[in-house]
Design goal:
Helix content of chain A: 25-40%
Strand content of chain B: under 5%
Largest interface: A-B, 56 and 67 residues
Shape of chain B: globular
Oligomer: heterodimer
Strand content of chain A: 15-25%
Structural class of chain B: mainly alpha
CATH architecture of the largest domain in chain A: 3-Layer(aba) Sandwich
Structural class of chain A: alpha+beta
CATH superfamily of the largest domain in chain A: DD-peptidase/beta-lactamase superfamily
Shape of chain A: elongated
Helix content of chain B: over 70%
Largest sheet of chain A: 7 strands, mixed
Radius of gyration of chain A: 32 Å
Order of helices and strands of chain B: HHHHHEEEHHHHHHHHHHHHH
Number of domains of chain B: 1
Largest sheet of chain B: 3 strands, antiparallel
Chain lengths: 615, 405
């Protein structure tokens, strides 16, 4: 290099020669070591014997409900495998006949597996029955390379189905193998929906491996380096749920034959007590091999049984949403609880007429919630404003994911000024859009899960706990649960505001003339709100949100019955029965343990004048 | 006649790479013998023919024009990398391919060459010095731009290659010991941090002493030192934020034994294959490990096992020797050429090949962790073979034009 000092360049060149030379000396030394010193050892391993890895499958974690009852178990099942290298292809037809499989299917499977290794067994059919097993066993000598391994398959030991919340496991697809990285191989089972999907990484455990030496004919002749390299399989972690499977089964029985969802939460921590999406399906269909025709039938069923209505469906909530507006109006100081509206059965804005079901006369906030007076809320919406309403809607968890610990969830839709401008253009919409939103109609979408979380916040005076179905991981050794942490946040809404809306909800169920009377439970005070959501495609959807007992809520619930009609007549009774079942147990005779009142909260509630009168 | 050829063509580089490519063809044939041999071997044969044309074309390419197109070619390869990120095909979890009929093209292979050319072109300007911090930063930018795009694919192996190449060029260009340390320190700290707190502290201490010994201005030294510590600490947070399968990939990189079904298995089988070859090997097409496909995808990253097993120490040592000749010659060439540009190109290309060879053979011999890097000239793969051919062509071109300033 002309421009640089030659001496410097030669110096650097010498350094590089030395570096290159050194690396090659090390490589040659290593070659010498492997090929001269250890060649006998390696030669033996290779010429007569070779090393093979036999995967050891971990046991998938069990699932327990909140009472420590095991609800998801494993059963052994036999899986037929074929090792491409040893398999005699002339036996293809025989195998296909015995296992009632297609020869092209088996051929494709073997080809796929071969790309990875000709020595890795390829799973051909999972969960074979006893007849198939015995035919294979009889013909074992004539079927080189054909073997079976014991795997575990899911076994459901609960009267409840809980299909959507538990979720199913399925054989991994090519795309998933690519997406999930090296941990999975062909034929592995992977949790695909619900908790099986959400907690896949904990439930599956870790595969182990056993090294053994095989001869050139592929027969195992022994271990390798006395098992030093073997890796034990680590079983999956067991889940302890917050769910009550007694309540789950009961709620499922109530929803049988209807389309809709029930979500019940523990208002004290956000734990899911029950989650029903109806119609549902039988999870055990998926635990072995799912015949393609069953898959097709489920996927094309107009009732969509695979769809989790509890977390994915998005409907306007109807009148159940009125408390959002009441909170926004009180918190922003737009009205006082004493503010009155005269309801003449309809409300006119410009040339548009908004209807009500009844003529309610002069109503204040409490009676407007109790009787679900639309005219009151049309006017309240105009007084409060879209963005104030949307702000408190967001605070209460609408228009966003709840963060529940299963994967499938819809954020819903909560319009704001920004949204309306985007959707219709700044001049494309008017105040005329607002009254409908005020009664939970129009461009508003919520999921039953969001509604249950909303009932939870109303029940516990403003604590939003992230809904979750898993308490934590249950230790095998002593059955204790290592609890998982979930998020909580406190809404900045004043206690008197909560007191008003809660009292309105109590009156809606407990007082004559309230719309939610069918949710009443003997001996316990219930609070709730009904909703009837208009549906352009058919009959109205019936909604109910509520909680009980009123003074010390232990269950918050949302019920949605699609195309049923009035919330008060179709959703409220389901909610009432579920809460009764949870609080009193299956007999309905055992009274709940004495409630411990929350001092700060109840005192304030009693001090607030307008509601004391109702008691 | 021979004299004339010797004066105009670099026979050492030409013959060494030709022989290596030949051994490669022979090995690929053996590794894929009986399975889907015809397909893979045939493709490699076609690529080899194309490679020969590339070598000849680039050897006879006008030297001045090469220098002129260096920066534009680099920009073009950056564009290709962006396009592949947007449209590319994903192979084993990494998006780095274009489809061209039944052949696939990997732009990151060509970006290696254009980066060397661009860096050489920049550093050979008379007003640029690696001692000047501003110039040093720009030079680093020329390397980091493609590396950033490649890491997004993600392709860890190729990114490491760039590191080796850039380090060699900076060393050659007279960067101070301090700037070399400044380049190495954060990387070393990051890797050490993944191994644990103690290795991290040791690396920080060693690097700290080395930085101190360079007698660099205290403030500058403190900045470099803090960057190193910060990078090391943030690696832990980044690691915690990764998805489990991404963490697992890193764990396997650090400790292949932790994944006996994947990387650990390959290393073990590779050692058995090479070790069992003995002095003279088991004979062509008679290597039981190779023929029984114990090593998955052996024709790509683990191709070195084939000569190791079937031709034994003699075969493997021959391959090593040919690479040693090639690399030594590359360094010699870099010191002989008159043009500063040519000198940088020669050292950059030689370092690129060297990093591939060191990592790949080190891995096959069980000395290095498993990083997916092909062995130049031997591994199956069109993009890799063509880019190696281009490097050979350019190196021979530099020799032919060694007297040009």
């Amino acid at each position: 290099m002309a421009l640089q000092d030659d001496i410097q360049i030669y110096e650097k060149r010498r350094v590089l020669y030395v570096v290159i030379g050194l690396v090659f000396v090390i490589f040659l030394g290593r070659l010498f070591q492997l090929q001269m010193f250890y060649s006998d050892e390696y030669g033996k391993k290779s010429e007569e014997n070779s090393i093979r890895v036999i995967p050891r499958e971990p046991i998938r974690g069990y699932i327990y409900d909140r009472n420590g009852v095991r609800v998801v178990d494993n059963r052994p099942s036999f899986t037929v495998t074929v090792m491409p290298y040893e398999f005699d292809r002339r036996k293809l037809g025989f195998i296909a006949r015995v296992l009632s499989l297609d020869t092209t299917f088996i051929r494709a499977r073997i080809k796929q597996g071969e790309e990875y290794s000709r020595f890795a067994p390829v799973k051909i059919k999972r969960d074979i029955d006893f007849r198939e097993l015995s035919v294979l066993e009889e013909n074992r000598d004539r079927l080189p390379g054909v073997d079976y391994q014991v795997e575990s398959k899911r076994w459901y030991v609960t009267p409840a189905r809980a299909s959507h919340i538990l979720g199913y496991t399925k054989e991994i697809s090519e795309n998933q193998i690519r997406a999930l990285g090296g941990e999975y191989t062909q034929g592995d089972v992977v949790g695909s929906s619900g908790l099986e999907g959400g907690y896949e990484s904990s439930l599956r455990g870790r595969k182990g491996a056993e090294f053994s030496t095989v001869n050139v004919r592929g027969q195992v002749v022994g271990g390798f380096e006395s098992g030093k390299l073997d890796v034990q399989a680590v079983d999956g972690k067991d889940l302890a749920l917050t769910m009550d499977f007694g309540l789950q089964a009961f709620a499922e029985s109530l929803m049988a034959g209807r389309r809709g969802a029930v979500v019940a939460l523990d208002p004290r921590d956000g734990g899911v007590l029950a989650m029903v999406s109806s119609p549902d399906y039988d999870l055990s269909v998926f635990s072995g091999v799912t015949p393609p025709q069953i898959w097709r039938a489920m996927n094309s069923d107009a009732e969509r049984p695979l769809f989790n209505r509890a977390t994915l469906t998005r409907y306007p909530p109807g009148s159940t949403f009125k408390m959002v507006l009441a909170i926004a109006a009180l918190e922003t100081g737009k009205v006082t609880p004493q503010w009155r509206v005269n309801c003449g059965g309809s409300f006119r804005l410009g040339n548009k007429v908004f209807k009500d079901l009844h003529v309610h006369g002069s109503v204040d906030m409490l009676s407007a919630i109790q009787h679900s007076c639309n005219v009151y809320f049309y006017q309240l919406m105009l007084k409060t404003g879209l963005d104030e309403w949307a702000y408190y809607g967001r605070e209460l968890g609408f228009g966003m994911l709840t963060g529940i610990d299963i994967a499938e969830e819809n954020p819903g839709l909560l319009p704001s000024t920004a949204f309306m401008n985007r959707r219709y253009g700044p001049t494309g919409w008017t105040r005329g859009f607002l009254p409908s939103l005020g009664i939970g109609q129009g461009e508003l979408g919520v999921t039953p899960l969001q509604m249950a979380a909303y009932a939870m916040v109303l029940a516990n005076w403003g604590d939003y706990h992230q809904p979750h179905a898993v308490q934590g991981f249950r230790r095998r050794s002593d059955g204790k649960v290592d609890t998982l942490a979930f998020q909580s946040r406190r809404l900045s809404v004043a206690i008197p505001t909560w007191a008003i809306v809660r009292e309105g909800m109590r009156r809606a169920v407990e007082l004559p003339g309230g719309t939610g009377g069918l949710a009443k439970i003997k001996g316990i005070e219930v609070a709730g709100k009904t909703g009837t959501a208009q549906n352009p495609h058919g009959p109205d959807h019936a909604w109910f949100v509520g909680f009980a007992p009123f003074d010390d809520p232990r269950i918050a619930i949302c019920v949605l019955v699609e195309n049923a009609g009035f919330g008060g007549s179709h959703a409220a009774p389901v909610a009432g029965k579920c809460m009764e079942r949870y609080l009193f147990g299956p007999q309905g005779a055992t009274p709940p343990p004495k409630a411990i009142p929350r001092p700060a909260v109840t005192e304030t509630a009693q001090q607030t004048p307008p509601m004391a009168g109702g008691e | 006649m021979l004299n004339y050829i010797q004066r105009h063509f670099d026979l050492q580089i030409g013959i060494a790479s030709f022989l290596l490519a030949l051994i490669g063809l022979v090995s690929v044939y053996s590794a894929t013998y009986d399975a889907r041999a015809s397909d893979i071997f045939f493709k490699q044969l076609v690529w080899s023919g194309a490679g020969t044309i590339v070598v000849l074309t680039l050897t006879l390419f006008p030297f001045r024009l090469l220098q002129t197109i260096s920066i534009p070619a680099w920009l073009f390869s950056l564009l290709l990398l962006v396009v592949v990120l947007l449209l590319g095909k994903t192979v084993s979890g990494s998006t780095s391919w274009f489809n061209l009929g039944s052949f696939r093209i990997q732009p990151s292979e060509f970006a290696k060459i254009t980066t060397v050319l661009a860096l050489a072109s920049y550093l050979s300007r008379s007003d640029v010095s690696l001692r000047n911090p501003r110039d040093l930063m720009l030079a680093t930018g020329i390397v980091l731009a493609p590396v950033a795009l490649i890491m997004m694919q993600p392709d860890f192996g190729t990114a490491v290659i760039y590191g080796g190449m850039a380090f060699a060029i900076m060393y050659w260009g007279g960067a101070s010991q301090f700037s070399l340390l400044a380049v190495v320190a954060p990387g070393a700290a990051a890797v050490a941090a993944l191994f644990g707190t103690t290795p991290f502290l040791i690396v920080v201490a060693v690097m700290g002493v080395l930085i101190y010994l360079t007698k660099e201005h205290r403030l500058v030294a403190a900045v470099v030192f803090s960057i190193m510590v910060l990078v090391g600490i943030s690696v832990q947070f980044i690691y915690d934020g990764l998805r489990p399968y991404q963490q697992k990939r890193i764990d396997t990189f650090l400790d292949p034994g932790a994944d006996p079904l994947g990387a650990g298995y390959n290393i073990l089988q590779s050692k058995v294959a090479i070790g069992s070859g003995g002095v003279f090997g088991k004979g062509y097409l008679h290597g039981s490990q190779t023929q029984l496909n114990f090593i998955p995808e052996q024709w790509t990253d683990f191709i070195f096992c084939v000569p190791g097993e079937e031709f034994g120490f003699m075969g493997a040592a021959t391959v090593l020797l040919l690479f040693a000749v090639f690399l030594m010659r590359g360094v010699t060439l870099a010191s002989k050429v008159k043009s500063k540009y040519a000198s940088f190109v020669a050292i950059g290309l030689t370092a690129t090949i060297a990093t591939h060879v060191f990592i790949n053979i080190g891995m096959a011999l069980g000395l290095f962790p498993v990083i997916g890097v092909p062995l130049p000239f031997l591994s199956y793969g069109g993009s890799s073979l063509l880019s190696n051919a281009a490097m050979v062509g350019i190196l021979m071109n530099l020799y032919t034009n060694r007297k040009e300033y």
